[in-house]
């Protein structure tokens, strides 16, 4: 355990009351409990309010392109598996523009944790419908109500092969930090979907609404995959660790002999001469 | 008498094995000490459809299959209808009439009809081995050295079973046997020039892969696409044994972003693609420009737009490679002209990208990517790894490392995650010296100028044009067209100055310098709009240009260039 203040960085510019404050607090607490070394941690984010979280969390951080955080993180983790790589972003990042990467990072079982701050609205662009907005949800781009069903992110991740799927609520940062801690500790791909209200643009899915529409998982065996699917199909949001199973990670499969560390100096690779035989 | 120069086209239906036969033939040419140029022509499908492979071997250095062929080996009717007129008078057509007998209307060539498939089936029980049998026929007709040819066959199949090798050698012998009594090609002479075995036969994509390995590239991410996949395939085989990673990404977009991530984490990384994939990569390349990360991207151009002609060559991504993506950005675009250059450019691309902390785009075209050429074994001793201002052990600079510090040359010190005193942020948003987002206008101007400053600086280290010859008439080109241009120049009656542009962005001042005494310049390129011609005019102010353009998906031949210049100049 290290002092939680170690992870302080810039003061957040999120709106007062934003759910993402709870996520930041939970992340710092999890990091502190785990004793994460900021010099060996990379917080990779996409674009959106929530993706600014690495400006507020002290470690290496890369704020990438909308939807591409998971792809960039894949490159980072595979280049240096020693690093603790955490991805964070919003529902637009994970479940709309970057959906493809979520599916594939999950099926690869890359050893990273992905925290999705899900507020069911587009905040930074000022209030458009999101992939997780409910059908009928009225926004500036859906004045007659959304015609689409919401994407069920955790269900998608589980179906894609994620070996850790959990849901937290930023209104309960203590439980959330425990979940994040477990997600980081988990060896393999971990998705944490966080109900994180947008107090400015979403007047429907508020703190109170989430309280009414969620429940705590009790006596649940997280290794039961069938049950996990059932839970994720519930009308109400289950909170807690929904699925967890140890499987071989992508890195373990990729690096059969050794890992070339980027921290070491490099030289001209003269061993290519051994390949010349192919060209005779 | 034609001495030490032979062009053969092998044609058939896809699956007939024309490419495999061509491969052995080109290896034979290398072994006897010849240079090689090849040109593949096949449809975008797995089986069926006419495929042909042209292979030329010559004593002189060649980069083009030339205008005409000396021998046509045809396994289908299409080969005859499409390529019969391509045969040089005095040349030969060998037609496998097992499937169907046809009339061949050329009186000035030798015509040999032989049921290769039937013989192969009867003698060896394998129809496909007709290919190797055909090599026996060609060997006999042109007096090839049968010992060296057999060595070549053995070596080509060295990873196959003993049985397969034996069958192929037997097929070769049968081919020779069956040709006894056929008219020999006495008007051709191919000497055995082989001296020291210090050459390699490889295609541009393999050279690019080797260059990357030599440079210490340890990460490639790519999505399969013609004609760039070979590089991913090659590195998928050779990176794991070097502790590196080759990953077939879920998309073109994923691939570039993975490569940027790898570069950020400190590995030398690349992504390879062709035009349609490059379209999708522009945003990721923009990120690399903004966060100033070194990454190497290969665009092996094919005919566009959209899916275009997936298996055919073109040079129509010039504008795209230079300008693709929004915003003002620093990048490097280099265009190798042959296989040897493909290796060295690939190696240097990694140095350049780290020194200037920019994405480097290697703009090849299908012909270079796939063309097999003979090159001298690469001079690895002349190569040096240069990583620029990478700090693997920075001194304590405070709580945050000033990753984007304002230095005189615009290049900041760079460090990578995992390093103790290096913590900083990187972001595609405008940022301050620590990589923290800011919209401050004063900072914006400083940062923009810092990034743009690199463009002038890098000019000094990029590849100047290669200039051959002198004269008031010039030819300007880039990439693979150098082969046919050089041969066209040899045939033209007057002096010509050939300027081959090798760096497209930033455009170097030497082109203008070289055009000083030129009155007229022919710009040879494989696209419709004249993208290179526009680029030259824009950057040199030189106006008197004539475009020689081709956009049918097939490579230039010397004759096309020769005729156009004669016509315009009245020569």
Describe what this molecule looks like in 3D:
The complex is a heterodimer of chains A (280) and B (571). Chain A has 280 residues and is α/β, with parallel strands linked by helices. Chain A has a single domain, classed as Rossmann fold (3-Layer(aba) Sandwich). In chain A, 30% of the residues lie in helices and 16% in strands. An 8-stranded mixed β-sheet of chain A has the order 2-1-3-4-6-5-8-7, sandwiched between helices. The model of chain A has no long low-confidence stretch (mean pLDDT 97). Chain B is α/β, with parallel strands linked by helices. Chain B has 4 domains: 2-195, Pyruvate-ferredoxin oxidoreductase, PFOR, domain III (Pyruvate-ferredoxin Oxidoreductase, domain 3, 3-Layer(aba) Sandwich), CATH 3.40.920; 201-382, Rossmann fold (3-Layer(aba) Sandwich), CATH 3.40.50; 390-462, no CATH class; 466-569, 3-Layer(aba) Sandwich (Rossmann fold), CATH 3.40.50.920. In chain B, helix 3 (116-124) crosses helix 4 (130-141) and helix 7 (204-214) packs parallel to helix 12. The longest helix of chain B has 19 residues, at 441-459.
Write the layout of secondary structure elements.
The complex is a heterodimer of chains A (280) and B (571).
Chain A: H1 20-34, E1 41-45, E2 60-63, H2 69-79, E3 84-90, H3 91-97, H4 99-108, E4 113-118, H5 153-160, E5 164-169, H6 173-185, E6 190-195, H7 207-212, E7 214-216, H8 225-232, E8 237-244, H9 250-254
Parallel strand pairs in A: 1-2, 1-3, 3-4, 4-6, 5-6, 7-8
Antiparallel strand pairs in A: 5-8
Chain B: E1 2-3, E2 5-13, H1 18-31, E3 35-41, E4 50-58, E5 69-74, H2 77-83, E6 87-95, E7 110-113, H3 116-124, H4 130-141, H5 146-156, H6 162-179, E8 188-189, E9 199-203, H7 204-214, E10 217-222, H8 229-238, E11 245-248, H9 252-264, E12 268-273, H10 275-291, E13 295-301, H11 318-323, E14 332-334, H12 339-356, E15 359-365, H13 366-370, E16 372-376, E17 425-427, H14 441-459, E18 466-468, E19 473-477, H15 482-491, E20 497-500, E21 503-505, H16 510-514, E22 520-525, H17 531-540, E23 545-549, H18 558-569
Helix pairs in contact in B: 1-4, 1-5, 3-4, 4-6, 7-8, 7-12, 9-10, 15-18
């Amino acid at each position: 355990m290290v002092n939680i203040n170690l992870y302080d960085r810039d003061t957040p510019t999120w709106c007062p009351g934003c759910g993402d404050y709870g996520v930041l607090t939970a992340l710092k607490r999890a990091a502190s409990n785990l004793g994460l070394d900021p010099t060996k941690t990379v917080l990779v984010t996409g674009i959106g309010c929530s993706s600014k979280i690495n400006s507020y969390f002290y470690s290496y951080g890369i704020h990438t392109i909308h939807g591409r955080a998971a792809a960039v993180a894949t490159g980072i983790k595979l280049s240096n598996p020693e690093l603790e790589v955490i991805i964070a972003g919003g529902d637009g990042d994970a479940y709309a523009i970057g959906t493809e990467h979520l599916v594939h990072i999950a099926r690869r079982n890359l050893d990273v944790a992905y925290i999705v701050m899900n507020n069911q609205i587009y905040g930074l662009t000022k209030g458009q419908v999101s992939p997780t907005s409910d059908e009928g949800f009225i926004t500036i781009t859906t004045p007659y109500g959304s015609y689409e069903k919401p994407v069920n992110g955790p269900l998608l991740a589980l179906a894609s092969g994620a070996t850790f799927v959990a849901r937290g609520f930023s209104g309960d940062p203590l439980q959330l930090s425990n979940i994040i801690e477990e997600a980081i500790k988990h060896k393999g791909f971990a998705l944490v979907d966080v109900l994180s209200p947008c107090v400015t643009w979403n007047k429907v899915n508020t703190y109170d609404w989430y309280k009414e529409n969620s429940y705590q998982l009790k006596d649940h065996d997280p290794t039961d995959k069938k049950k996990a699917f059932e839970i994720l199909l519930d009308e109400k949001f289950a909170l807690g660790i929904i699925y967890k199973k140890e499987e071989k990670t992508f890195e373990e499969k990729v690096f059969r002999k050794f890992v070339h560390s980027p921290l070491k100096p490099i030289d001209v690779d003269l061993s290519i001469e051994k390949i010349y035989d192919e060209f005779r | 008498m034609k001495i030490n120069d032979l062009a053969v086209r092998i044609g058939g239906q896809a699956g007939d094995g024309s490419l495999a036969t061509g491969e052995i033939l080109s290896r034979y040419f290398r072994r006897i000490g010849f240079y090689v140029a090849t040109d593949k022509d096949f449809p975008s499908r797995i089986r069926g459809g006419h495929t042909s492979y042209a292979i030329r071997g010559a004593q002189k250095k060649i980069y083009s299959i030339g205008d005409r062929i000396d021998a046509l080996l045809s396994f289908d009717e299409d080969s005859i209808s499409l390529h019969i007129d391509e045969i040089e008078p005095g040349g030969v057509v060998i037609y496998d009439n097992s499937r169907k007998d046809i009339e061949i209307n050329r009186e000035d060539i030798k015509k040999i009809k032989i049921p290769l498939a039937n013989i192969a089936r009867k003698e060896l029980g394998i129809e496909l081995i007709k290919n190797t049998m055909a090599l026996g026929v060609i060997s006999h007709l042109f007096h090839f050295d049968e010992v060296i040819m057999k060595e070549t066959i053995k070596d080509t199949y060295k990873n196959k079973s003993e049985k397969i090798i034996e069958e192929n050698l037997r097929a070769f012998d049968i081919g020779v046997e069956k040709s006894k009594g056929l008219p020999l090609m006495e008007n051709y002479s191919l000497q055995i020039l082989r001296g020291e075995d210090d050459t390699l036969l490889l295609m541009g994509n393999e050279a690019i892969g080797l260059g990357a390995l030599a440079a210490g590239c340890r990460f490639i991410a790519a999505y399969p696409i013609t004609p760039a996949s070979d590089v991913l395939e090659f590195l998928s085989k050779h990176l794991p044994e070097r502790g590196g990673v080759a990953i077939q990404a879920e998309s073109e977009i994923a691939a570039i972003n993975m490569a940027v991530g790898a570069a950020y984490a400190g590995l030398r990384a690349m992504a390879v693609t062709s035009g349609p994939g490059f379209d999708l990569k522009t945003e990721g390349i923009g990120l690399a420009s903004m966060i100033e990360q070194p990454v190497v991207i290969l665009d092996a151009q094919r005919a566009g737009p959209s899916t275009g002609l997936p298996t055919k060559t073109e040079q129509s991504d010039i504008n795209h490679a230079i300008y693709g993506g929004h915003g003002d950005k620093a990048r490097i675009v280099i265009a190798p002209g042959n296989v040897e250059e493909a290796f060295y450019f690939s190696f240097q691309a990694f140095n350049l990208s780290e020194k200037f902390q920019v994405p480097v785009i290697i703009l090849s075209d299908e012909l270079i990517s796939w063309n097999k050429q003979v090159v001298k074994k690469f001079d690895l001793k002349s190569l040096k790894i240069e990583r620029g201002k990478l700090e693997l052990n920075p001194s304590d600079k405070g709580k945050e490392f000033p990753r984007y510090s304002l230095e005189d040359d615009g290049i900041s010190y760079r460090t990578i995650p995992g390093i103790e005193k290096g913590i900083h942020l990187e972001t595609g948003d405008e940022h301050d010296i620590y990589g923290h987002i800011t919209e401050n206008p004063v900072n914006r101007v400083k940062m923009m100028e810092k990034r743009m400053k690199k463009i002038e600086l890098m000019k000094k280290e990029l590849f100047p044009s290669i200039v051959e010859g002198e004269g008031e008439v010039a030819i300007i080109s880039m990439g693979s067209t150098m082969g046919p241009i050089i041969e066209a120049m040899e045939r033209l009656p007057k002096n010509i100055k050939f300027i081959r542009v090798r760096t497209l962005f930033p455009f170097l001042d030497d082109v203008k310098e070289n055009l000083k005494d030129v009155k007229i310049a022919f710009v040879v390129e494989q696209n419709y709009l004249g993208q290179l011609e526009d680029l030259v005019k824009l950057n040199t102010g030189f106006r008197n240009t004539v475009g020689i353009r081709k956009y049918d998906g097939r490579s230039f031949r010397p004759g096309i260039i020769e005729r156009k210049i004669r016509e315009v100049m009245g020569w």
